[in-house]
Amino acid sequence: MTGWIDRQTQAAIDATREDVAALHAELVRYGLVVWTGGNVSGRVPGTDLFVIKPSGVSYDDLTPENQIVCRLDGTVLEGTPGSDRSPSSDTAAHAYVYRTMPHVGGVVHTHSTYATAWAARGEAIPCVITAMADEFGGEIPVGPFAIIGDESIGEGIVATLTGHRSRAVLMQNHGVFTIGTDARDAVKAAVMTEDVARTVHITRQLGEPIPIPQQSIDALFDRYQNVYGQKPAGELK
Ligand SMILES: [Zn+2]
To answer: Where does the Class II aldolase/adducin N-terminal domain start and stop, copy by copy (predicted)?
Structure first.
């Protein structure tokens, strides 16, 4: 798929570029990233492509045009705007998730402070607040320690989140990866992960959190996913 892109695909790529570029500002706004760390990607609907940010470019300089279009094997689609740059160093992990989880439309990675502090200790965040039951349906699990550069991070994300309600995983000693129905949904999961990581951390400083009974977690999750809001978020499993 080089050289010629039909109009419908081009429109879908352009819309995804806009979304992904704009959503990086949300990572900054919510204090989830420093310098150029962290990244958002979005699957281009109806294609085997995704859009991700270029590596090492300041958040202030991200535009729809300099986002990079990749195939699901993580290679850059030549001849498209931005293709002269290298994609995010986490591209292989994002690509692995899109290849193996076809229902996922967005992936986010951050080293947000509180969540990464849980990751550094290799401890799952227990589900002890109702907002967490709503959003994640249980604990936020820990994935394996994995070195950047091959597929081991992607494998760890998929192995941990497959069959799990959580859209977020704490990769041990590293940071947060989230998945979503689209890039915005994955960004929301990243924002909520840091929020609950902070709250449960502070709770721990004050004493032992009170567990929420499993049946209440189930009821909260079901209600939030299926009833709450303007339209269902769509449950990811
Ligand atoms: Zn990282």
So the answer is: 18-201
